[in-house]
Structure formats: structure tokens, C-alpha cells
Design brief:
CATH superfamily of the largest domain: Naphthalene 1,2-dioxygenase Alpha Subunit, Chain A, domain 1
CATH architecture of the largest domain: Alpha-Beta Complex
Order of helices and strands: EHHEEEEEEEHEEEEHHEEEEEEHHHHH
Strand order of the largest sheet: 1-13-14-15-16-17-18-12
Oligomer: single chain
Helix content: 25-40%
CATH class of the largest domain: Alpha Beta
Number of domains: 2
Bound molecules: FE2/S2 (inorganic) cluster, fe (ii) ion
Number of strands: 18
CATH topology of the largest domain: Naphthalene 1,2-dioxygenase Alpha Subunit, Chain A, domain 1
Number of helices: 10
Largest sheet: 8 strands, antiparallel
């Protein structure tokens, strides 16, 4: 693909920001916005409507109904009889019930209200009568033909469930006009050979603005300050002064920022890619050979509600027995949960400030190292001005909130999972220490 690129080199010193005395680059906001408006070729092609990694394959179990939402619109994922994942609007076309507490029978979705049953094509199968058998509807077959589930295109690939979200579900999937190919979203099409890695994965829920969470994951600056004590890297700490050179570029498919240590012996620190509308990839080195790749997918559940699927791919610690012995998965999850908890209050309050209109140009001043964030907001504002998904399913203060909190399944909003994970670690470690001690005592 021929892409006109804008590459800029930016240099900054962590020491300056750590002391909070760095000179504020007051021009960056104007400068970057200006460039963007003058050069549309520097804009990312994809807008906010398009392909989203909406769930991990692991979360969609045969026989279960997975509830989530996109931009306030409640949706359902389930596996049909051939294990193919379907994305359905959470609305029964008989009388408008949700599929919450519904069932999957032989791979068919069954409504909890009157038992309407739908094939994987979304047709009422007429196998179970909607009404009880004593209610006679002579025109039943004709009626059943008319009702049909409304859907979105859905593809399962590389362990993710991708949906093509337009905000307007359809009964006939062939009627969707797919503007951007799914390939533009896949990490693999950027050179990552994910099949060569093992990965750990968690899903986390936030009561915060979706876009603010993406911004957080594009923000190198806060990593040292907020996560410095948690991330096991001696170069990432509140107390370590680190200097970087930044090279940042905007292409039609991605924004990419590469950070190199100023100390040439240390080389690259990290590279961050934003792949619209909801994916962030963080890695070190070349895409093809990186030892470690982090992929974060952001699902805009509703206003003030977002889900993040975090996957850490690694080329090391690939031996399954070895990782099991060292409780690698549980320990990794503990780190993930802690990192996201550290961000949580900041994201919630920053969301509030944004909604109150406080995060305006005159109130905030971006630093040179915020350029990635600035480019992201350029894209977002441009995308919102063209097609704003939040306008498609608006809610207000009178809207029943039944769906909102039900979706907050994962930490940090639901801390039970993190506590449970911690208990599992303690239990397994205790068992491994105690059992040999007991055995030794018995023999002595
Ligand atoms: S509302 Fe679903 S079967 Fe009646
Ligand atoms: Fe963070």
C-alpha cells in the first residue's frame, strides 16, 4: 500500500517532566491541528464505525449467551450449532424482550419471554411455538416467517471476535457495505507473527470514557509515574530519569510512535501503534521479531462504560509445564489487574473533567511528549465530526440502567476476580509448600 507519511522527530527528557517543571510547549496543540487540517492525506482512513475486536474467543462458550454493548446498543454473542459466532441485537422481534436469561438450544437462540427460537441465519425456526400450545394461532407459520433477528457481521479470527459495527443492525447480513477490510485491524497485517507466540489475556471493565482509556494506553508519560512500582522493568520507575528521542508518523492505517533512549547503548525503549478505531499495540524492536507484544482492544460499551481486552504475546516462557509450575498465568493476571487499578480513579475523574468541559484548550497544555495523544485526539475529533456513533443510540437520565452495571463484569470495577486470583496464588503456593512438609513429617 502506498502511504503518504508524516514523520516527525521529537526529543524529550524524562527528567524534565518528572520534576513537573518542564517548559510547556504551548504551540504543539495549534501546530499539530494545523498540519492535520492542511494535509488530509495524513489522516487515518478508518473512522469510528468499523471493525472492533469485541471479545476474546475464550469468552464465548458454546451454550452460553455473552451480553455486551456497543455505543449503548445492547448486543449478544453466541455460538451456533457449527460453533460459528453470531452477533445479534439484543432484541427479540416478537415483542421486544432482551435475551438476558434466554437459552441456547442445539445452537439456536431462545427468547426467555415466550420461547421464540432462532436459527443461526436469524429466522424463527418454528420448532418451539412462541405461544403455549393451547393458544391456537392458525396463521402461525406465516407469522414465524416474518420475524427475524437483527445482526451485525461477525468474524472469529486469531482468538478474537471481530464485529463490524455500524450502529444499524440488519436482518440480512448481505446488505452491509464493508468499507474497510478486517485486515487493516489485524496485528498480523502489520507484520506481527502472533502464531509464534504464547499469550496471557485479561479483560477489564472501566466506568470511564472509552476514548480516555485509549489515550491512557498511548501515553508513555504516565507509565513511569503511575505504574513505575508495578512494572518489573528497572528503566520504568518514578525515580529513574530516562531520556528519549521520539519519532512519530501518521499513515492511512496507523499512528506510530517510537521511543529510543537518548543513551545510544540502550537503544529502543518501546514502540506504540494506534490502529483505529479501538486497537493499541505496544512492542519493542521489529514487528516480525519482537520478543513481546501487547495488544489492547477497547470496546465502547456505553457512555462512561468501556471494556478492554489485553493480550500479552511472548516468545519466552513458552513451555506450558514450566509456566504452570511457576503460576505464570495467575501472577501475570495479578500484575495486569494492579496496573489497571492504578489507572482507574484517574480515568474516572478525567472523564468527569472532560464531560464538564474543563479539559479545554485554555485549561490544559500539552507537552512535546504528548504528541501521540494529540494525534489521537485529532483523529477522534475528525471521526466524530463525520459519523458519531454516540448519536445513534442515545440514552438520557430516564433510561432504565438495567444493562449498564450488568456489563461491568471484570476488575477493577468488579474487584472480586482480582481477589479470587490472589487467593488462588496463595492457595497453590501454600499447597506446594505444605504438602511436602506434611509428607516429611509423616515419614519422620
Ligand atoms: S418477546 Fe421473545 S418470544 Fe416473545
Ligand atoms: Fe496506565
Amino acid at each position: 500500500m502506498s502511504e503518504e507519511e508524516l514523520t516527525e522527530f521529537n526529543s524529550f527528557n524524562k527528567a524534565e517532566q518528572a520534576t513537573l517543571k518542564s517548559p510547556i510547549n504551548e504551540n504543539i496543540d495549534d501546530k499539530v491541528s494545523h498540519e492535520t487540517s492542511l494535509k488530509p492525506s495524513n489522516q487515518l482512513k478508518a473512522g469510528l464505525l468499523g471493525w472492533y475486536a469485541a471479545a476474546s474467543s475464550n469468552a464465548i462458550k458454546a451454550g452460553d449467551i455473552y451480553h455486551f454493548s456497543m455505543y449503548n446498543e445492547p448486543l449478544v454473542l453466541y455460538r451456533d450449532k457449527d460453533s460459528i459466532v453470531k452477533c445479534i441485537k439484543d432484541l427479540c422481534p416478537h415483542r421486544g424482550a432482551s435475551f438476558i436469561d434466554g437459552q441456547i438450544k442445539q445452537g439456536e437462540l431462545v427468547c426467555p419471554y415466550h420461547g421464540a427460537r432462532y436459527s443461526s441465519q436469524g429466522e424463527c425456526t418454528n420448532l418451539d411455538r412462541i405461544t403455549c400450545s393451547h393458544i391456537v394461532d392458525t396463521n402461525y407459520d406465516n407469522y414465524a416467517k416474518k420475524i427475524h433477528l437483527s445482526q451485525y457481521p461477525c468474524v472469529e479470527k486469531n482468538g478474537y471476535i471481530y464485529i463490524y459495527y455500524t450502529g444499524k443492525s440488519k436482518t440480512n447480513l448481505n446488505e452491509f457495505e464493508i468499507k474497510e477490510p478486517l485486515e487493516n485491524t489485524l496485528a498480523e497485517s502489520y507484520g506481527f507473527k502472533t502464531s509464534e507466540y504464547e499469550f496471557e489475556e485479561v479483560t477489564v471493565d472501566f466506568k470511564a470514557d472509552w476514548a480516555r482509556i485509549i489515550e491512557n494506553h498511548l501515553d508513555i508519560l504516565h507509565i513511569f509515574w503511575v505504574h513505575g512500582d508495578t512494572i518489573p522493568d528497572k528503566d520504568v520507575s518514578k525515580n529513574v530519569i530516562t531520556s528519549f528521542d521520539q519519532s512519530i508518523k501518521r499513515e492511512s492505517r496507523q499512528i506510530q510512535s517510537k521511543y529510543n533512549h537518548k543513551d545510544k547503548n540502550k537503544g529502543e525503549f518501546i514502540t506504540i501503534k494506534f490502529i483505529p478505531p479501538g486497537r493499541v499495540v505496544i512492542y519493542k524492536g521489529e514487528e516480525e521479531t519482537s520478543r513481546y507484544v501487547q495488544v489492547l482492544d477497547h470496546v465502547p460499551l456505553a457512555e462512561n462504560r468501556a471494556r478492554v481486552i489485553v493480550r500479552h504475546y511472548r516468545r519466552f516462557m513458552k513451555n506450558k509445564l514450566f509456566t504452570r509450575i511457576f503460576l505464570f498465568k495467575n501472577l501475570q493476571h495479578q500484575v495486569f489487574y494492579k496496573v489497571f487499578s492504578e489507572d482507574y480513579m484517574i480515568l474516572k475523574t478525567q472523564t468527569f473533567n472532560q464531560q464538564m468541559g474543563y479539559v479545554e484548550k485554555d485549561n490544559v497544555k500539552l507537552l512535546g511528549e504528548d504528541k501521540m495523544v494529540q494525534y489521537y485526539w485529532d483523529w477522534l475529533n475528525n471521526a466524530l465530526s463525520k459519523e458519531n456513533p454516540w448519536d445513534l443510540h442515545p440514552t438520557n437520565e430516564h433510561t432504565n440502567a438495567v444493562h449498564k452495571d450488568m456489563r461491568m463484569l471484570y476488575p477493577p470495577e468488579n474487584p472480586k476476580l482480582a481477589i479470587q486470583n490472589k487467593r488462588t496464588i496463595i492457595f497453590k503456593v501454600a499447597r506446594r509448600i505444605l504438602i511436602p512438609i506434611i509428607l516429611i513429617l509423616l515419614f519422620v
